[in-house]
Each structure stands twice: as C-alpha cells, then as structure tokens.
Specification:
185 residues, tt1808, chain A, 28% strand
Length: 185
C-alpha cells in the first residue's frame, strides 16, 4: 500500500485570504477543518427540511436572547466550520466585524443524514477541543437527537445523551428554551 502524500495545511488567515480574493466562493462547498479544506456533501431534501424546521422552532423560542445563524461560518483555532445551525450571543453588529468565536457560541447543531459518524467523531472532537459548551447532532437515519455537553480538552464531552421523539431538548445556556425532538425530526 502506498503512503499517503503529504498534505498542505492552511491557516485560518490563509483561508480568509482565499475567500477575500474570491479563490473560494459560496459556490465552493468546502469548510476549513483542522487546516484542511474539506468538501461538504450535497444537502438532501430531508436535511434541508430539518434545518428549516430548526430555524422556525428556535427563532421565536430564543427571541432577543440570542441570534440564530444558519449555515454560517464560525471561527475556531485552526478551523472555520459552517454548522447547519448555531445559536449565538446577541451582538449589536450581528457579527459583521468578525466571525463568532467559541465564547460567542451557545449551541452548535449539525444535521446528519450521510455524515453521522463524521459528525459524531470528528466534528464532536473539534467542537469539544474548542470549548463549544453544547453540540447537537440531528441524526436523521436513526431519528434521534444526540446532545453533547460539558466539553473536555481531550476532545470529548462529559455529558452525552440521546433523545427520541416524545422527549424534549433544552438549550443549557438559555433556561426555558426547549424544543420537542419530534418537531425537529
């Protein structure tokens, strides 16, 4: 078996320059993960519908207590992922001056149909290492919501739960904000 060729890693600054100079555009379905440009899979209809449902549920639920960001990039140490949904701390400029950083992020949500393992292993570790306090995976194939809380520096979460239709999920950073898992799925 041949050795894997070396990979060129990009810094967040490199990535931002590629976007600024239109080397990468919104038509390029990529995100910077751990210094590598990774292609994002095409969005299926069930995936898109789930993101739309999440947006519709979360916007009125959080009201003025946060900002719902759909498919927008967030800034991490060596990555610029584009989670399906992120709940952000309110800011008067709506993050026009800089991407949201871990301290700004109340919740990150990835909707997974073909990427469950990647979101559970790689994305979970990335978010935990960067101190994202709460991470949800909407697991479409298994019709459940995986909730990850209490990030550890080793890339794991201390509190992991699986919720099913009939259960409700609360946003830890926003007491009183709950959504029915059945409504998400």
């Amino acid at each position: 078996m041949a050795d894997n060729p070396p990979r060129h890693r990009f810094s967040v600054a490199d990535y931002e320059k590629m976007v600024e100079h239109a080397i990468l555009t919104e038509n390029d379905r990529v995100e910077l993960i751990r210094g590598l440009l990774l292609e994002k899979p095409d969005v299926s209809s069930p995936h898109a519908a789930c993101v739309i449902r999440l947006n519709r549920l979360l916007v009125p639920a959080i009201n003025e207590r946060g900002i719902v960001s759909v498919g927008d990039p967030v800034g991490l140490a060596d990555s610029v992922p584009e989670p399906d949904v992120a709940l952000l701390r309110p800011r008067t400029d709506f993050y026009a001056s800089a991407r949201p950083q871990p301290k700004d992020i109340l919740l990150v949500v990835e909707v997974a149909d073909s990427t469950v393992d990647y979101d559970r292993e790689d994305k979970s570790a990335l978010y935990a290492e960067n101190g994202i306090t709460e991470y949800w995976i909407v697991n479409l194939p298994d019709r459940c919501l995986e909730v990850y809380r209490q990030p550890r520096p080793d890339g794991t979460y201390a509190d992991v739960r699986t919720l099913r239709p009939g259960d409700t999920a609360d946003v830890a950073a926003l007491p009183g904000v709950t959504v029915a898992v059945a409504d998400i799925l």
